[in-house]
Structure formats: structure tokens, C-alpha cells
Amino acid sequence: MNSIDKAFAFQEKALALRSYRQQLISSNIANADTPHYNAVDIDFADAMKKALAGITSGLELKKTNERHLSGLDTSGINGVKPLYRTAVQPSIDGNTVDSNIEQGQFAENSLSYMSTLTFINGTIQGDGYALRSN
Q: Which one of 2, 16, 29, 111 has the lowest number of neighbouring Cβ atoms within 10 Å?
């Protein structure tokens, strides 16, 4: 891993997790009227800690042939599994999606994603100015 990779490793993981979370929240919103659908989300802080520590979930199995499956859980990203969201107001059809909460979470996550991109862009521009001045 070179110095550029190290400099952007945190932001890369943050963007990947934000993107994954956005997909989960979008799925929740899309399934707001689906009977018995359970809303899911990730604990971003915990997921980020695991991603930075390189922790992945799953059981690695011994492979005696290269065609064997690895046994690692590939659901989610970096071993981060979605958690079921607690229903604020129970629905008659068993759906746990609260559209207001999901839309708020979607907007908050979008802003966090955009702020990370803005930070990366600023860092790249700053490095570019430094390189051009030499």
C-alpha cells in the first residue's frame, strides 16, 4: 500500500459504507408498503471501526481444492451485516418501515456521503497545488 492509498483509506471505507447504507435505506423506502417487510440499517460507527480494523465476519474453512467455496460470509460489505430496525409504530401488516424516519436517515446519509466527497476533493486539490508549486 503506497502513501496515497494510506492517505485515502479512511475516506474510501467511509464512502463504501455510506453507499451500502444508502442502498439499505433505499430498499426500506421502496418496501414501505410490503407486508411483513422488516426495515434494516447498519450501525455506521461500529461498521467503520470494524472496517478500519480489518475485521470481517464469517468462518474461514480449510480448502483442499481450489474449487471449494471459501466459507466466508459475503453478505454486506466488509463483513458488516444489516440489523433490523426497531419498529417505532407497529403496523397491522407487520411492516416495520416508518417512511418519515427512513427519509430522514436517507437525507442524513446523503449529506454525509457528499461531505466525504467534498473532503476528498479538497485534499486532492490541495495536493495538486502543492505539486504544481514545486
A: 2
Measure the CA–CA gap between 107 and 17, rounded to whole angstroms: 15
Ramachandran quadrant class, 40 (left: phi over 0; alpha: psi -120 to 50; beta: rest): beta
Residue 88 lies in a domain: yes
What is the residue range of 108's domain? Answer: 3-125
Mean pLDDT of the chain: 85
pLDDT (0 to 100) of residue 90? 75
CA atoms within 13 A on the CB side of 32: 10
What region, left, alpha or beta, does residue 56 occupy, with left being phi > 0 and alpha being psi -120 to 50 degrees?
Answer: beta
Report yes or no on 131 lying in a domain: no
pTM of the model: 0.78
Q: CA–CA separation, 29 vs 50, rounded Å?
A: 27
Residue 47 lies in a domain: yes
Backbone φ and ψ of 80, nearest 5° = -85, 120
- Report the domain count for the chain: 1
Q: What is the pLDDT of residues 7-21, one digit of tens each?
A: 888 999 999 999 999
- Other CB atoms closer than 10 Å to residue 132's CB: what's the count? 7
